[in-house]
Design brief:
The complex is a heterodimer of chains A (about 90) and B (about 575). By secondary structure, chain A is α+β, with helices and mostly antiparallel strands. Chain A has one domain: HPr-like (Histidine-containing Protein, Chain: A). Chain A has helices at about 15-25, 45-50, 70-80, and strands at about 1-5, 30-35, 40-45, 60-65. Chain B folds into three domains: about 5-25 and about 155-240, Glucose Oxidase, domain 1, CATH 3.50.30.10; about 35-145, PtsI, HPr-binding domain (Enzyme I, Chain A, domain 2, Orthogonal Bundle), CATH 1.10.274; about 270-550, TIM Barrel (Alpha-Beta Barrel), CATH 3.20.20.60. Chain B is globular and about 85 Å long. The chains are: A alpha+beta (about 90), B alpha/beta (about 575).
Chain lengths: ~90, ~575
């Protein structure tokens, strides 16, 4: 298992569009992806889980990946978040 | 008798037309027991319904014209994800198995559990997403019940021009259908400013008022209705003064739309005969098509990040295939490909995330060309793909966030290596491929007479240049007044870039948002800019301003302003430029 912290920096936070992209990205990998905000943790492949984190901009998250392709999966998810989910802002 | 109702103002615009009440068959969800032997078939029935629901959503997403409705497609994608979400899918199947009840009821029980979670959220936007879950569950339930309510829009006419649809609520899919049929406006009883109906209506440009309680009982079929989406008000059977007022407003808007449309096919030439090159920032095929439709003279900024955000970094062939399809579509219109402008690396094992994380300010961190020069394998793969693309059509290469000469020299070295590798493979490329630099760093802007010697062209990224020059985050709403292109320091910076580049004889484009903002068109023209690259939707509006500008007058006005600090402090430059036009 590997993990990394990342800050949500896009303006709208983990709203529906960003959450959709995160879940689609996480689902491309076989590894289990866990997204943590403080004490709460949710399945990174569940849109409802990710939405109910209510992670606004500025929120610090921990992403954990566990599985055969954990390194690539973690990097992909972190890159997506750091690049504002590809949103133009 | 006239009647005025108020709701949430969610999507601006005026609609005038006749009322149509949309009916929806409410689903009646009953509970019944199933035998142990029926569990498997009941779960299968449930899975079939989920599949049918998914098919319907995907088919809808296919049908929606992406040029106008990317958000609609994305909302539908989020619904598709909800369909397969373990919180619904797996737990419903477990519920059927454990409670031996029918699928509709199991699903309903799960919905209620999920809704409790959503309703407890502090964030109103997230709370509202419970509505999306409800819509998704209703869709599955309608599939379970075969025919009833699975086609809720049977009574909606095929053509809805001059018709306002009044509904209890509308799903994103239903709204997309109404849009296709040309609906003039919508009113719903449910839904607030954060609902997807609101977000979607606004992005589709459908005037809408949501949350009008009792609308369906108060309004009658074929009532005349005026809807003011900006104010969130509807007038049923309005008095003649109200009706005439709104008809005037609508006519003016239509007049403006037509005047823009008339710009198509006309040259972007100023009143005193100087030509300007209007180009587009585009990467997706719908944007490229829009750029072509609106007479773009080039794609001044083709971003490539999207290739890297889909999963694993694309290999050379995959990139080449993307560039090739853009080149084919553009059919001779020049394409400026910007190399990767990302802030995090996905492929390099050498890069440590803890290091990136410590970067307190990612805007000033390891990104764009800085990152590419640290991962030369990744970068050279892209350079080779761009080089090979240059054999197939007019292509230029643009490097983001150039800070100093050493970076440009390093890019030239890597480009030479990439060319050598292609020579060894006997692959073709344009030997004179032009290399440009994006100027976003203020120090680079000031040193342009030096940097420019190593570049074939320059593109100014005003979004970042402004934020760095003014030390104001462009996403920070409270600093919006500081983030101002008219700041004399910024104007001098732009003037400096244009003047020095002109001395060196290299072309300059602006590809930031300022290039597509009609308020700034005259200012940029007056400073000497002749290449603008913008979102394709803005091309016609900017062209209209170019054609209405007398450039010599604009230059004269800005010269006075640049030489007069008192004038700078006391007048608005934009107003000054507009006045100079009208006095002419």
């Amino acid at each position: 298992m590997i993990s990394s912290n990342v800050k949500i920096i896009n303006k709208l936070g983990l709203h529906a569009r960003a959450a959709t992209r995160l879940v689609n990205c996480a689902s491309e990998y076989v590894s289990e992806i866990i997204v943590k905000k403080g004490a709460r943790s949710v399945n990174g492949k569940s849109i409802m889980g990710v939405l109910t984190l209510a992670a606004a901009t500025g929120t610090e998250l921990t992403i954990e990946a566990n599985g055969a392709d954990e390194k690539r999966a973690l990097q992909a998810v972190i890159a997506l978040i750091m690049n504002r989910f590809g949103e133009d802002e | 008798m006239s009647l005025t109702l108020k709701g949430h103002a969610v999507a601006p615009g005026i609609a005038i037309g006749r009322v149509h009440l949309a009916e929806r068959n409410e689903l009646d969800i009953g509970e019944y027991r199933i035998g142990q032997d029926d569990v498997e078939s009941e779960i299968q029935r449930y899975r079939n319904a989920v599949d049918a629901a998914r098919d319907q959503l995907l088919e809808l997403a296919e049908r929606i014209d992406p040029e106008v409705a990317v958000p609609a497609v994305e909302i539908i994608q989020s619904h598709v994800l909800m369909l397969g979400d373990s919180k619904i899918r797996k737990s419903t199947e477990e519920h059927i198995q454990q409670e031996l009840c029918n699928a509709e009821w199991a699903l309903q029980s799960q919905l209620e559990k999920v809704l409790i979670e959503f309703r407890s959220m502090d964030d109103e936007y997230i709370r509202t997403r419970g509505e999306d879950v409800t819509q998704v569950v209703r869709l599955i339930q309608s599939k379970l019940s075969d025919e009833a309510a699975s086609k809720p829009f049977d009574n909606i006419p095929d053509r809805l021009a001059d018709t306002l649809v009044i509904a209890m609520e509308l799903t994103p899919g239903e709204l997309a259908i109404l849009h296709e049929r040309g609906v003039a406006g919508i009113v719903t009883e449910h839904g607030g400013p954060h609902s997807h109906t609101a977000i979607l209506a606004s992005s589709l440009g459908i005037p809408a008022v949501l949350g009008v309680h009792g609308a369906r009982s108060l309004l009658k079929e074929d009532h005349t209705l005026v809807l003011d989406g900006g104010l969130g008000i509807i007038f049923a059977d309005p008095d003649s003064a109200t009706l005439e007022h709104y008809q005037d407003v609508q006519r003016e808007a239509e007049h403006f739309r037509q005047s823009l449309e008339s710009m198509r096919g006309r040259p972007a030439t100023s009143r005193d005969g100087e030509s300007v090159s209007l180009q587009a920032n585009a990467e997706l095929s719908r944007e490229l098509q829009q750029a072509i439709d609106y007479d773009a003279k080039g794609i001044g900024l083709y971003r490539t990040e999207f290739l890297y955000l889909r999963g694993a970094p694309p290999d050379e062939e995959a990139q080449l295939a993307e560039y090739r399809s853009a080149i084919e579509m553009l059919n001779g219109i020049p394409l400026t490909i910007r190399t990767l402008d990302l802030g995090a690396d996905k492929s390099s094992d050498a890069l440590d995330f803890s290091q990136l994380r410590r970067s307190a300010n990612p805007a000033l961190g390891l990104r764009a060309i800085r990152l590419c020069l640290r991962d030369t394998d990744l970068f050279k793969t892209q350079l080779r793909a761009i080089l090979r693309a240059s054999a197939e059509g007019p292509v230029r290469c643009l490097i983001p966030m150039i800070t100093n000469v050493q970076e440009i020299q390093r890019v030239h070295e890597l480009l030479a290596e990439a060319k050598k590798e292609l020579n060894e493979r006997n692959q073709h490329y344009d030997h004179d491929l032009q290399l440009g630099g994006m100027i976003e760093v203020p120090a680079a802007a000031l040193a342009i007479d030096q940097l420019g010697r190593y570049l074939d062209f320059i593109s100014v990224g005003t979004n970042d240049l402004l934020q760095y020059a003014l030390a104001a985050d462009r996403g920070e709403e409270l600093l919006a007044d500081l983030y101002d292109l008219q700041h004399p320091g910024v104007v001098f910076l732009l003037k400096h870039i244009l003047k020095q580049a002109d001395k060196l004889g290299i072309p300059v484009a602006v590809c930031g948002e300022a290039a597509g903002d009609p308020r700034y068109t005259r200012l940029l023209l007056a400073l000497g800019l002749r290449e603008f690259s913008m979102h394709p939707a803005r091309l016609l509006e900017v062209k209209q301003i170019v054609r209405n500008t007398h450039l010599a007058e604009a230059r004269k006005a800005i010269r006075e302003w640049l030489n007069d600090p008192v004038l700078q402090a006391e007048t608005s430059l934009l107003q000054l430029l507009d006045q100079a036009q009208s006095s002419h």
